[in-house]
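Hi! If you just cloned this repository, the fastest way to understand the data is to look at a raw example. We've pasted two of them here, unedited. The first protein comes first, obviously.
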Amino acid sequence: MQIGIPKEIKTQENRVGLTPQAVAQLVRSGHTVRVEAGAGVGSGYADAEYQAAGAQIGSVDAVWQAALVVKVKEPQPVEIARLRPGQTLFCYLHLAPDAPQTAGLLASGCTAIAFETVEDGHRRLPLLAPMSEVAGCLAPQVGAMALHAWRGGRGVLLGGVPGVAPADVLVLGGGVVGTHAARVALGMGADVTLLDRDLNRLKALDVQFGGRVKTAHAGMLHTLIRQSDMIIGAVLIPGAKAPHLIRRADLAELRTGCVLVDVAIDQGLAKGLNVHAGGLYEPNVAAVQGKPLAALADALA
């Protein structure tokens, strides 16, 4: 099979669909792999490494002629225009909130397989899990920076200092993202509460963290959000929009300067101002302007 690895063109996306090691395995199995020139640079892989692995370095046109195209992020409009019937696209798609992309893929006639919905024999999501681990680890770090007073936060240190209490961090969802977010926040010294609707999952997490992380059932949500300095949204429904757990009406109940970090924002951001699965965002500010935080003046007043 001919396999193409294009260079990612989405803003701030530096990953690449396959590493040189993965390319070498495919070539040994008899496949032809074409890698677009410079595709791996953002991830630290030079064209020479792909060539040493047996890949051909080609143009964007040559790569998109392959029967199977493997990339990272969802295809951009100019990439969708390159797709054709009989071709297979393999990447993260996140179709639930993206009707235009869905329509474009259907019109192309290609077969599109989403990384985030591929399951193993135990119904786990092996291609989503690694990115969920990264996102979970990053969430408390990003949130800690946003807690600085000069950024509009509460002026609270995540781990506190002697004589001053640490920040209260609420993690919504006890899956891969939530578990890693709780672990990092705990390591930074925060007082962490992990909320999930599955009591058995909460029991397992209590054992995993040795009782150092508080656990709470979903029914405690609206009590806990009023007591939190940081809320991390880590809710996932595979292949579907994430639920809106915190509503506009809840904003007045939050502490002034409370920071909300939403890992699931790319899986269901809707119109208008949304507090989505724990996140507070102005639509498309992060995606369009490349800013990690959206400033919403007086949103919590």
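Ok, and the second one:
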Amino acid sequence: MRKISTLPDWPHFIIQSMADAVITVDGDMRVTDFNKAAEKLTGYRREEALGKFCGEVLHSSMCGRECPLKLAMRDGEAVTREAVLHNRRGQDIEVMLAASALRDDQGNLLGGV
């Protein structure tokens, strides 16, 4: 068995393997990563979601106002909220959103997760 740290893009493999939906965005709120659980939840394939604005994919009850990702990126603290997502199949799904800022080693904001 290979060590995961020897894989060239090992963080991506971790995100793709998680059972919880994981979506990352850049500072402009465009989707930069989208795991298989996020595909199942939203009905969008990763390839369709990448580059879109977060709200175009999540259709959350919190989009445009108290967006947990925007709050986490602005304040630098994790934010947890209950929300309703409207998926591609027309279903409303109650979820618990947990958002955090993504920063580099120097503390510069890269986006959110």
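That's it. A detail worth noticing about the second one: The helical segments are 10-17, 36-42, 46-49, 54-58, 68-75.
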